[in-house]
Amino acid sequence: MPDFLHNLRTFVRVVEAGTFTAVAKEKDTTAAQISRAISMLEEEMQTVVLHRTTRHLSVTEVGARFYERAKAILADLDNATDEARNATQTPSGRIRVHAAPGLAYSSVASVLAGYQAKFPDVSVELKIEQSMPSLVEDGYDLSIISATQLPDSVYISQAMGAAYAVPVASAQYLARRGHPRTLTDLADHLLLQLESPVSAPDEWHMQKGADTQVWTITRTPFRANSPEALRAAILAGAGIGTLATYSVADDLVTGRLVRVLPQYHLRPFTVFAVYPSRRYLDAKVRTLLEHLRATLSPSLASAVEVVERYADKGAAEDMPVEKGAVRVKEARGTRRAKRR
User: Are residues 326 and 258 in the same domain?
Assistant: First the structure.
C-alpha cells in the first residue's frame, strides 16, 4: 500500500506537470525512477494510463478517468490525515464520558459544563452508571469512578483525589429517634443501605484513627443503588445512611443533614479518571484531564475539608474497644461489630 500510494501520487503529478523530468526535479530523483513508478502502477492495475514516447506523454482515456478519481481520493486522504493529526493538537468533536452517579451529580456534570464552555468546538456526552463500562467496546473516551483499588487492566488511570463516606441523618429523624452516641447505639436505629463498587451494602467499615470496626446490617427498611436516591430517603427521615464527602458536604453546611457518630468515617477511597491509552492521546482527552486536575481535584479536597469541620461538632465518647472481636446485641437488623 505505501508503494501504491507513492506511485499514485507520482501519476497525478506527472499528469499535472506534463513530463517525467519536471516531476523528477520536484522529488529530487531521476526521470527513470518516475517512469518506473508509472510502470508499477500500470502493472498493479493491469491497464495503461500514459502513452509515452521519447519526446511526448499523453494520458489514455482510462488514465484520464483514473486521474480525476485518484486526485479526489488523495485529497480526501490528505484531509483525513490532517484531521487525525490535528486531533492530538486541537480539541474538537465529541467526547464521551462515563461517571458514577454520586460524582456525576455532585461535581462532574458542572465540571464538564465548564470544560465545554472553555472548548466550544467540543461536544460532551455524559453517561451516568454505577459500574464502569468497557471503554473500548462501548466507545468511551474517559471514565470517572470511585474505587478503593482498580483491577488490573490495559486502561490508564490518574488519581483525581480522595474521599470517604460518613453516616448522616436528617434532623427530623434524629429528633424522633435520638442521636447515636456509640457504635452499639446503631442497633436501635434504622440503617439504610447503598449498593456501591466502593463497599458492600451490608457492611460499614467504621474507622476512627487507626482503629476499624465492621458494622453488619442484616435488615434494612431501604436499599438503593444510587447515592441520590439514598440521599432523598435520608432527607425524608427514613433512617441513617452513608454518603460520600462530595455528595454530602452541601447538606451538612445547610443543615439539611447531620453527621452521625462524627468521630467515625468509612474506609477512604480514590476518585480516578480512567482512559484507554496514553499513546497519541487525543487532544480532547488530554485537555479534559488537565481541566479535571484544575477543577475536580480541588472540589474533592474542599468537600473533605467541609465534612471534617463537622467531625468536631457533637462528637460523642465512643465505646471502649477490646482486642479481638466484640459481639453486640442483635436489634433492628444489626448483628456485630468487629475490630480489624
Answer: yes
- Asked which of 87, 121, 153 is the last residue of a domain, the reply is 87
C-alpha to C-alpha distance for 101 and 108, rounded to whole angstroms: 9
**CATH (domain of 62):** 1.10.10.10
Say if CB 206 and CB 183 are below 8 A apart: yes
Cβ burial 123-135 (10 Å sphere, 16+ → b, else e): ebeeebeeebeeb
82: left (phi over 0), alpha (psi -120 to 50) or beta: alpha
Sequence length of the chain is 340
Residue 255 in grid coordinates = 443543615
Element (H, E) at 169: strand 165-169
Query: What are the tens digits of pLDDT across the range 87-117?
Result: 556 788 999 999 999 999 999 999 999 999 9
Residues sharing a CB contact under 8 Å with residue 150, sequence separation 6 or more, in sequence order: 157, 272, 274
Closest CA to 301 of 271, 267, 262, 273: 271
The predicted-structure confidence for 4-52, as pLDDT tens digits, reads as follows 888 888 988 888 888 888 889 888 899 899 989 989 988 888 989 998 8
Domain count, the chain: 3
Give Cβ neighbours of residue 57 (< 8 Å, ≥ 6 apart): 14, 18, 19, 20, 50, 51
Residues 156 and 186 in one domain: no
Which segments of the chain does DSSP mark as H helices, in order?
A: 2-17, 20-27, 31-45, 61-87, 101-103, 109-118, 135-138, 171-177, 227-235, 245-254, 283-309
Do 23 and 171 lie in one domain? The reply is: no
The parent domain of residue 214 ranges over: 165-267+310-339
